[in-house]
């Protein structure tokens, strides 16, 4: 794709050239003569957009809205501000759909629906160029399409945050449920001429998905209401069942990630699975992996590759990478540069073997450094432990930082102080914090105290009931013989 644009002193001109063949056919050109947008499209051959079914157009609009919402949030808008902008941007959404049809003309001619990834890949670069071109007034550009705002309205010396706040303040509050969602909900609620619900809704209900659950999914992801039964929903469901996913789990999976039904099996889902299997992800574990984190199959290949490359960079072996992805597939959802790498650097500063921690407790890397990790570290420092002690504790028990400081660590620490063990016992056995205080720690310690014997902390907690009582018996007999 070839992108080119230019800006004059008196006129703003933006043009986007898309090359779909060696002749470099001009598909779309936008001109912004100071205060106005104009849109024209030239096609290499005849193509009538009216042949696109209305339900498909509605689904594409919902996909475009979802993409634009994510894009606006990347620009720094809050959820509420992004929602307000979307509600005022119908003409811009229509413009995005027009571009989509231009880019994927051949797909419509053969009657194939576009996947979610295809829609993203077609529109994301265009939105990025607009952001670079219009900067602080981008929101006005989107909301006022096709009338472009005057850049001179804003003081360029103002900080970006100030400009952004002023734009958000200009937008009226949104209704609790916008008209787009109401239309989507009506589509799955209204009875047809035969007095029945739409076929895809009947199919989902028969699958075990309650109607209220379907409505809740559509409130969060309206495009789901427009997915066709035979073209999208049914093939994905049958594919999951073939992988060994129990039929009873399908409603939960679709509730977690309805976007799965918008992904092409042949072009996206199956290639993604093949890619992961080549990395060593256990084929026999697909049902569990998808149930735990169905979003895994909706991520792009670059996103998957970036995470895998990071794991190798940290020192994980191929076997460890495959086990990590199988046991904790949601690690793919963490941003490498914003989440994984900073967390790795933080643990590295404590002297932790990062590769070992990633292999043993990858879920730890989804925690917030400021809200979760640092408070636990600071707590143990205040209790008299050194950085080296803490690093040893984490290396021996990676799940330590996944526990709530207030509800787990502190209560167990306070009870530990009553047990009479030296504090270094926790450095040797930090797994102490993984046992239930009421169901394991207190009852076991009460028995030991009652017998009047001394056991190592790990003997008190880690042994099975049979082994625990055997050790108690030996200790008691030895105590009597002495």
Automatic annotation (TrEMBL):
It comes from the Eukaryota. SMART domains: Mterf. Pfam families: mTERF. The keyword Transcription applies. InterPro entries: MTERF, MTERF_sf. GO terms for molecular function: nucleic acid binding. Gene3D superfamilies: Transcription termination factor 3, mitochondrial. The keyword Secreted does not apply. Keywords: Transcription, Transcription regulation, Transcription termination, Transit peptide. One of its GO terms (biological process) is DNA-templated transcription termination. Belongs to the mTERF family. This is Transcription termination factor MTERF5, chloroplastic.
């Amino acid at each position: 794709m070839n992108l080119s644009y230019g800006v004059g002193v008196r006129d703003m001109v933006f043009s986007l050239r898309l090359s779909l063949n060696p002749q470099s056919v001009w598909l779309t050109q936008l001109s912004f003569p100071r205060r106005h947008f104009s849109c024209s499209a030239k096609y290499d051959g005849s193509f009538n957009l009216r042949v696109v079914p209305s339900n498909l157009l509605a689904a594409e609009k919902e996909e475009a809205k979802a993409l634009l919402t994510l894009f606006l949030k990347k620009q720094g808008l809050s959820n509420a501000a992004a929602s307000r902008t979307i509600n005022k941007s119908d003409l811009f959404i229509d413009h995005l759909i027009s571009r989509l049809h231009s880019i994927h003309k051949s797909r419509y001619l053969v009657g194939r629906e576009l996947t979610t990834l295809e829609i993203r890949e077609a529109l994301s670069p265009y939105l990025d160029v607009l952001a670079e071109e219009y900067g602080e007034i981008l929101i006005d550009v989107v909301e006022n399409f096709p009338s472009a705002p005057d850049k001179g309205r804003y003081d360029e010396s103002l900080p970006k945050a100030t400009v952004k706040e002023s734009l958000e303040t200009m937008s009226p509050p949104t209704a609790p449920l916008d008209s787009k969602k109401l239309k989507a909900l009506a589509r799955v609620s209204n009875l047809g001429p035969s007095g029945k619900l739409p076929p895809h809704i009947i199919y989902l209900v028969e699958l075990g998905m309650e109607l209220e659950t379907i409505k809740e999914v559509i409130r969060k992801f309206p495009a789901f209401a427009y997915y066709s039964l035979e073209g999208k929903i049914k093939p994905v469901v049958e594919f999951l069942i073939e992988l060994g996913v129990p039929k009873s789990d399908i409603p939960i999976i679709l509730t977690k990630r309805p976007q799965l039904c918008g992904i092409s099996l042949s072009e996206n889902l199956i290639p993604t699975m093949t890619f992961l299997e080549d990395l060593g992800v256990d084929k026999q574990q697909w049902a569990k992996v998808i149930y735990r984190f169905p979003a895994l199959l909706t991520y792009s290949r670059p996103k998957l590759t970036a995470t895998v490359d990071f794991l190798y960079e940290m020192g994980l072996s191929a076997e460890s990478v495959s086990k990590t992805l199988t046991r904790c597939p949601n690690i793919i959802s963490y941003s490498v540069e914003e989440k994984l790498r900073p967390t790795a650097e933080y643990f590295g500063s404590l002297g932790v073997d990062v590769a070992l921690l990633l292999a043993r407790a990858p879920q730890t890397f989804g925690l917030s450094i400021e809200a979760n990790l640092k408070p636990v570290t600071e707590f143990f420092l205040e209790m008299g432990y050194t950085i080296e002690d803490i690093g040893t504790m984490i290396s021996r028990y990676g799940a330590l930082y996944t526990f709530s400081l207030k509800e787990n660590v502190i209560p167990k620490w306070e009870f530990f102080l009553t047990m009479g063990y030296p504090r270094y016992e926790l450095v040797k056995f930090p797994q102490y914090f993984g046992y239930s205080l009421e169901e394991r720690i207190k009852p076991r310690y009460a028995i030991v105290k009652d017998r009047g014997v001394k056991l190592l902390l790990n003997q008190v907690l880690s042994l099975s009931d049979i082994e625990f009582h055997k050790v108690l018996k030996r200790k008691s007999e030895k105590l009597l013989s002495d």
